[in-house]
Amino acid sequence: MDNRLFATRVQPDVPSRLDGLFPQLAFDDAIKFTAGAPAENLFPTEAMKQAYLAAMAKEGPHTFQYHTVQGPTELRERLAERARTRMQIESATVDNIMLTAGGQQAIDLVAKLLLNPGDAMVVEAPTYVGALSAFDMYEPTYYEVELEADGLNTTQLEDTLKAHPEIKFLYTVADFHNPGGVTMSVAKRKRLVELANQYDFLILEDTPYRDLRYVGESLPTIKHFDTEDRVIFLSSFSKVMMPTLRLGWLVASPMIIKQLLKLKEAADLEVPNLTASAVNEFLANNSLDDHIKALNKEYRVRQQAMVAAIKREMPAGVTATEPEGGFFTWVTVPDFINTTDLLYNEATPNLHIAYVPSKNFYAYKNHTNGMRLNFTGLMPAEIDDGMHRLGQLLTEKLTKVTD
Ligand SMILES: Cc1ncc(COP(=O)(O)O)c(C=O)c1O
Description:
Blueprint: E1 31-32, H1 45-59, H2 73-86, E2 97-101, H3 102-114, E3 120-125, H4 129-136, E4 141-148, E5 151-152, H5 154-163, E6 169-172, H6 186-199, E7 202-206, E8 231-236, E9 247-251, H7 254-268, H8 273-285, H9 288-313, E10 319-320, E11 328-332, H10 339-351, E12 353-354, E13 356-357, E14 370-374, H11 380-402
Parallel strand pairs: 1-12, 3-4, 3-6, 6-7, 7-8
Antiparallel strand pairs: 2-9, 4-5, 8-9, 10-11, 11-14, 13-14
Helix pairs in contact: 1-8, 3-4, 3-7, 5-6, 9-11
């Protein structure tokens, strides 16, 4: 059998966008700024163990039965309450929330809902690589809009919409962007909704990092400003609890939820009831907000170390975003430096540091002078040490050119 039998969407000769994203490092002592995963020592392991036991005790064998596509009502009620009080989504009710297999599945289902091959969509440049992996499968035409310090460039977005009125879908990570590290301003959130109304497209607002704010005040969600049911709001338990739960949840209009439920049913019928019930028990018997507070206290120390190290170590000509939360900062180096080559030829073999190079975070993989640095997976001393090494390497590169 040869590749001929595969659907075109698979593109068998093109590697997955996630390939090489977390390179296996030959050096155990390498300082890895690569992580996309939350810190394991902060997982609520014991509380979840109790929550699983409580879920099984409550429902007996019925726990293990098939349940509903949308997810258990009690959990959806809790999430609706959370959406109303913490995310300012006043329209959230038990009926317009659904559970998904992580945020990742929701991204896939929304793409499946909206995209025929060739359909036009907007992504931020850079954007979350896993979203691009999902979108790729529906063969869209991408239009990229640059990310600025206060979120996507809405002027450039409007120009793109004028030139391509067929655009029907926009994906954004407005809070503590992955990989950009930036947060969209309130003005841009409002503007985005206005543009969606004017140019007739839907927005997927993906917010897995939203609760992980270390400095400053939380901003209203884009969904909060939604006047025509054009925003699909997505959250996940992966970063604030644990990724293995594979539990995401979205809020959308009843009309959209109805279609997404058809797609969820076709894909995998429902989320595992044991997991959903255990998370429900966790929320009933613990304060998620207290847990998030504890996470933020710990992550804040690491964020502060990163912000200080950027100021101290990065040479002129190199810029970095200053994250107020989330997991990442984004570094831009001058054009002549290819960060993939730099990683494999110098940073890792010579200096024993690793980061994620920019290429795969761009829809057309044509951007080679950026890097994503994670700061939540490292202790402050490691951040200091790793950033010192990176600073020296970049200084050396820049000095060679100016000599
Ligand atoms: C922006 C963004 N969206 C979605 C996801 C998917 O997360 P999960 O499927 O674990 O909820 C991630 C994970 O890294 C992410 O960074």
